[in-house]
TrEMBL record:
Signal peptide: none annotated. Pfam families: ABC_tran. PANTHER family: SPERMIDINE/PUTRESCINE IMPORT ATP-BINDING PROTEIN POTA (PTHR42781), SPERMIDINE_PUTRESCINE IMPORT ATP-BINDING PROTEIN POTA (PTHR42781:SF4). Keywords: ATP-binding, Nucleotide-binding, Transport. InterPro entries: AAA+_ATPase, ABC_SmlMolc_Importer, ABC_transporter-like_ATP-bd, ABC_transporter-like_CS, Mo/tungstate-bd_C_term_dom, P-loop_NTPase. GO terms for molecular function: ABC-type quaternary ammonium compound transporting activity; ATP binding; ATP hydrolysis activity. It comes from the Bacteria. This is ABC-type quaternary amine transporter. Its EC number is 7.6.2.9.
Length: 344
């Protein structure tokens, strides 16, 4: 696959800075997920790469070549959007062959390639069906086959799973990732769903208001969020009241821990310590200041919702010990040793 690079890309619409100096590097063959809330600029970035729109400043390069001035049909990009993007009056096979027709392949070749791609996405039995005869998940498979049929240099996916039910979404997510790895096609995947981003991507770029907050491999992003925004946007994060004891350590309950990253202030500054539900240590304790009020079974783990006055927290425990924490039970919690992430 080819490398894709955004360099200081800026795009301004009346009243909105959609992209405020975006820098991205996607190594050839990798899948980069752009993750962020609605309106943060994800689709704008994708449209600029596709060539549907042009940056006001900055450059975009594919395979080391500036793509400025190249129209979309000369960029060799396969695209899948949220839904309903198939041509309703064409069969699955003709939809998949469409890009090849535009490229003037003859009909025999087109049909063979379309059949091959439909097989690849598990739709061999549906080649002659029309979109309305297919489920949402099947339609998105056809859209994926269509995007891949032209052997794109880059695959662009804009929330392709958002309109599907949970089960289908999960299946298709795994399948897109499998195909992407097998074909080694450089992919930009845009989503507001953190689970999707974390499970599919080599690298996840978290965006906020037209800027990249952090870009990192999924595990790294999850374990070491660089900012409070990333910490709370990706996964569930507890925010526990604490107080700085000096510029570099924080006191929470009876623990004193060093802090990670920039100091939010000196001794006495109130802060919040950010900690994942599964990282929180918990033990039953009749003298404990926390009270269990809900326990939610989640399979291997059970999530306990805890409260202490106005403050609340979530803790995940192995389900086999969940019976030690019935609603109303008292408990105490502690943080893992090691540097704590704090937010002012
Ligand atoms: P996302 O895909 O992350 O939800 P978008 O890239 O679609 O966000 O939009 C980013 C911002 O730019 C939003 O505030 C949106 O309203 C604005 N925007 C996007 N496209 C246009 C456009 N063609 N004209 C005016 N504003 C736009
Ligand atoms: Mg969008």
């Amino acid at each position: 696959g080819v490398d894709v690079d955004f360099h200081d890309v800026r795009r301004v619409f009346p009243g909105t800075v959609a992209l405020d100096g975006l820098n991205l590097h996607i190594p050839g063959g990798q899948l980069l997920a752009l993750l962020g809330p609605s309106g943060c600029g994800k689709t704008t970035a994708l449209r600029l790469l596709a060539g549907f729109d042009s940056p006001d400043a900055g450059t975009i390069a594919v395979g080391g070549r500036d793509v400025r001035g190249l129209p979309p049909n000369q960029r060799d990009m396969g695209m899948v959007f949220q839904a309903y993007s198939l041509f309703p009056t064409m069969t699955a096979r003709d939809n998949v062959g469409f890009g090849l027709r535009m490229r003037r392949h003859d009909s025999g070749k087109r049909s063979a390639r379309a059949t091959e791609l439909l097989e690849l996405v598990g739709l061999s039995d549906h080649v002659d069906k029309y979109p309305h005869q297919l489920s949402g998940g099947q339609q998105q498979r056809v859209a994926l086959a269509r995007a891949l049929a032209i052997r794109p240099r880059v695959l662009l996916l804009d929330e392709p799973l958002s309109a599907l039910d949970a089960k289908v979404r999960e299946q298709l997510r795994d399948e897109i990732r499998r195909l992407q790895v097998e074909l080694g096609v450089t992919t930009l995947f845009v989503t507001h769903d953190q689970e999707e981003a974390l499970s599919m991507a080599d690298q996840v770029g978290v965006m906020r208001a037209g800027r990249l907050e952090q870009i990192a491999a999924p595990q790294r992003l999850y374990d070491e969020p660089a900012t409070a925004f990333v910490a709370t946007f990706v996964g569930t994060m507890n925010r526990l009241e604490a107080i700085m004891v000096d510029g570099s350590s924080v006191r929470i309950g009876d623990q004193t821990l060093p802090i990670r990253g920039a100091s939010p202030g000196g001794a006495g500054t109130p802060v919040e310590v950010l900690v994942r539900p599964e990282a929180l240590r918990i033990r039953p304790d009749v003298e404990g200041v926390w009270e269990v009020f809900v326990a939610t079974f989640r399979g291997a783990t059970t999530r306990l919702q805890l409260r202490r006055g106005e403050e609340s927290a979530s803790a995940d425990v192995p389900s086999e010990v969940a019976s030690s924490y019935p609603p109303g039970a008292r408990c105490s919690i502690s943080l893992p040793d090691g540097p704590a992430l704090v937010a002012p």
